[in-house]
Amino acid sequence: MKSALVRALSLLFSFDHEIYQIVSVSLRLAFISTLLASFISIPLGILLGFSRTRTAGIIQVIFRSLMAVPTVVIGLFVYSLLSRSGVFGGMGLLFSPAAIIIGQTLLIVPIITSMMIGVIQAVDPVLVETLQTYSIKKGRYYLIILREVRLQMVLAIVSGFGRVIGEVGISMMLGGNIRWYTRTITTSIALETSKGNFEQGLALGIVLLVTSLGINIILQAGVRHE
Amino acid sequence: MSNGKSIVLKDIHFSYEPHEPVVVIGEISFDPGMISVILGGNGTGKTTLLKIIAGILTPQSGTVSLSQGRISDDSIYIHQDPYLLKGRVDQNLTLLLPGLRRHGKHNTDESVGSLLDSWGLSGFAGRHTHTLSGGEKKRVAVACAMAADRSVVLMDEPTAHMDSESIHTLEQQIRALKEAGKTVIITTHNHEFAFRIANSVWEMDNGTPHKQEFICFRGNITGSDEYFSYFRSGLIELKVVQTDREVSTAVIAGSDIIISRHELDSSARNTLHGTIRTVEKQETLVILTIDCGQLLRIPVTRKSVETMKIGPGSDVCAVFKASAVRLY
After folding, report:
1. Hey, where are the domains in chain A?
2. B2 close to B34: Cβ distance less than 8 angstroms
3. pLDDT exceeds 80 at position A225
4. What is the pLDDT of residues B308-321, one digit of tens each?
5. pTM to 2 decimals?
6. Is B100 on the interface with A (CB under 8 A)?
7. Of A130, A136, A140, the CB nearest to B83
8. Which of chain A's residues have a Cβ under 8 Å away from the Cβ of B86?
9. Residues B157, B171: Cα–Cα separation, whole Å
10. Domain A2-225, what fold?
């Protein structure tokens, strides 16, 4: 463990080009898929959170169930769509960063949506009544509510980010772990471990932890500021 | 004459659960430009009634109508524990009232600042809402609601969690609303506060508000002797039970007043001479409006009206005991 830590630190501070490329690919893909998922999940979460219909209730249950879907299942599903014989096979997206982004987005849409539903359902009813009595127009109404729950919303988004930065199944199946192209921290760890290069794998794991820790520290600072 | 708007509630039926009515109203109306106070215990439906009037809750049947315009567009409801948005007080105002925004930050700050100044909240603009006390929060909520400039102001338990000084400030704010011609409806448990500011008092009973015939005299104690204290309101002087408290309002329930054609030789210490102005027949009672320097609305039975042979223009005496006068 100690040697892995030393190796991790030396990897980080040796400014090894490949390591930084891997970290950069991981972060870039995670950011883009989190951003895409947020654009889908936040409005969806608001819609479902405020809706009292039976259909909305059923959709909520489905989303909650999808939170636990293994990454390889999503990988397999997207693979079947993007492979040459699949519906979108002609687009040639398989084993590209775009394929990973699609898979990762699908992975975290249920997570962010479910968390947003919870956030919206926990909104103080007095806030809703206040906005009603001031006859606030719909667009502004939702913006004010999002402003009030911004912290919880950021937490939901960060949870999604945490899920994608640490997933391996989708990146491996849809990205193919191609060096200098689709290799991410997690696929690299899997590769190094399979080669018996545990120290390198652990070192990359520590790099992943440091990255996650950095993001959480920034978030915590935001919480304190609030 | 008030330029406020009257509110009429007709055939209202509201329940949260089937077969458990919370508010049931045949027909009632709230006077325009006046302060109406609804009294009643917990769970009697006061808050629900206010929310129905505000348009926040929709009754299963019945209508709420305003003499002009739509009630939901021209009323503002102030919650008993108001929600202030996160951030500063000035952000609350500009978010809820986009009309306060002016071209340029300086001009917006100026319009928000002058609004807060006019409600005695100078220096509050930059304060974060989570640093405000319960009373301060309520005052900010009232100022914000007033800036919305609606004809009908609905306040739910406005004195809850307030100290006497804050209540005093709030009373001034509410009177200012009346002066501005707003129709104000307030729910409260605080009888003292209610009688100090109310033009009409309603008692909520099993989801139905009943108008109470109370007579309020505004004035002060002018002196005491060995038996009574003397409360003066304009030309009227009332004998009341001895008190050394500072009071501003004397209240008598209409049902505690006896009407007679002549002065009575009785234990009642107060006799007000006046002339009947109107006789209003209600379901079971008759409401006499008697002018004795102040208009008194006194309920009597039909039988009394018939046997006494009284009607508009009759001179009568309104007689009541010193102990029937409640002082606030």
Report:
1. 2-225
2. yes
3. no
4. 999 999 999 999 99
5. 0.79
6. no
7. A130
8. 147-148, 226
9. 13
10. MetI-like fold (1.10.3720)
